Amino acid sequence: MLILHSVAVVFSPLRQLFLLLNNVMQRSEFHNKFDTSGPVILPVIHVVDEDQTAANIDHVIKAGLKGCFLINHDFGIDAFLPVLEAIRGRYPDFWIGVNFLAVTGLKAFPILADLDERGVRIDAYWADDARIDESAVTQEEAENIAATRTACGWEGLYFGGTAFKKQRPVDTKDSARAAGIAGGFMDVVTTSGIATGHSADLGKLAEFRGALPDRPIALASGITPDNASDYAMVDCFMVATGINFENDFYNIDPARLSQLVDVCRDMGKRHD
């Protein structure tokens, strides 16, 4: 058993050894990677095709941001992979993360490793459900995912959904325990509001931060230029509807994105 900031968590002996021998991602390291002291903005692009994806990435780059996430909301992984390969070819140095909708790392990490072997670098993987069970004594599913990641040798960042929208509900009183467990299995503990476009409960985020004072936390729903400053305890905003054109699920509004960038830049200045 490990005690993580007053949260008692049971990890397997192998997982405990891994955590002791490997440096886990720290908040400062995460912010340094993206060269910002304020929240890191990672726009989420719901992919339609290569050209639509590229047009949105161009908006992200023009806004001065260093990365984004791509998600296959409307089609399967097999149709998604050629788009990823084409986009990596067009943007060889841009930071790209992916979400393979409705699968866990058990399936995703081997795919990512195969892409890497073919020269298609993916910098991060985001799972809506990292299979963290705050009610269980041990974390068999999360352990299996971690073992798969290690066996594949893929070295990107893992953003793992915890107490996440459209997944198994987690009681607010168990938020700290869920976050504490999650911190042992991923680089960036990632949570959300109750649904797409819905802001997250501030009390829940406070519990997450209390359990993980030195680890990066990402928020993947409900962020807008108007409410972003309420979430100063969060390290990363993964945002789609809050920066898209009104009633448009697929395309970034450069003006709204610019507003969010300005807000987060001001948040960083206050932090400094």
Mean pLDDT: 91
The counted number of beta strands is 10
In CATH, the topology is named TIM Barrel
The name of the CATH superfamily reads: Aldolase class I
The rounded Rg comes to 18 Å
Distance between the termini: 36 Å
Order of helices and strands: EEHHEHEHEHEHEHEHEEH
User: What is the CATH architecture annotation?
Assistant: Alpha-Beta Barrel
- The number of helical elements comes to 9
Could you tell me the strand content as a percent range? 15-25%
Instruction: Give the CA-based shape.
Output: globular
Q: Taking strands numbered 1, 2, ... along the chain, how are they ordered across the largest sheet?
A: 3-4-5-6-7-8-9-10
CATH class: Alpha Beta
Question: How would you describe this protein?
Answer:
The chain has 272 residues and is of the alpha/beta class. It has a single domain, classed as Aldolase class I (TIM Barrel, Alpha-Beta Barrel), CATH 3.20.20. Helices cover 39% and strands 16% of the residues. The chain is built from 9 helices and 10 strands. The protein has helices at 13-21, 27-33, 50-62, 77-90, 105-117, 140-152, 175-182, 202-211, 254-271, and strands at residues 2-4, 7-9, 40-46, 67-71, 95-99, 124-127, 157-161, 188-191, 217-219, 236-239. The protein has an 8-stranded parallel barrel, surrounded by 5 helices. Strand 8 (188-191), helix 8 and strand 9 form a beta-alpha-beta unit. Helix 5 (105-117) runs parallel beside helix 6 (140-152) and helix 7 (175-182) crosses helix 8 (202-211). The longest helix has 18 residues, at 254-271. It is globular, with a radius of gyration of 18 Å. 42% of the residues are buried.
